[in-house]
Amino acid sequence: MPIKTRCPDCRAPITLADAEAGETVTCPGCYATFTAPKRVVAAAHRAGVGGQSGGVNASPLAMVEAGIRRAANG
Ligand SMILES: [Zn+2]
User: Fold this and answer.
1) DSSP labels for the chain?
2) CA 13 to ligand 1 centroid distance, Å
3) Between the CA atoms of 62, 63, 64 and 68, what dihedral angle is there, to the nearest 10 degrees?
4) Domain range list for the chain
5) Using one digit for the tens of pLDDT, what is the confidence trace for 22-74?
6) Of 27, 32, 49, 55, which has the highest C-beta tally within 10 A?
7) How close is the Cα of 44 to the center of ligand 1, in Å?
8) 67 CA distance to ligand 1 centroid (A)?
9) Residue 74: how many other CB atoms lie within 10 Å
């Protein structure tokens, strides 16, 4: 799955190969080197699907901790 990002220097849209995630890549436009992001785009999409607040950290453990904290506060 290609990774779509932008050059942090010239803001040009860049498509990277999956193998380049987390690697140092060179912008084809301005030849600046930067570290390619790992696949965080998929996580961002998933966070928007639920439509509930706090969905990003909605792990079972986090939900349990939230319930405990709420009970402790009365
Ligand atoms: Zn650039």
Assistant:
1) --EEEE-TTT--EEEE-GGGTTSEEE-TTT--EEEPPPS-HHHHHHHHHH-STTGGG--HHHHHHHHHHHHHT-
2) 9
3) 100
4) 3-35, 40-73
5) 999 999 999 999 999 886 555 555 555 555 555 555 677 777 777 777 777 76
6) 27
7) 24
8) 46
9) 4
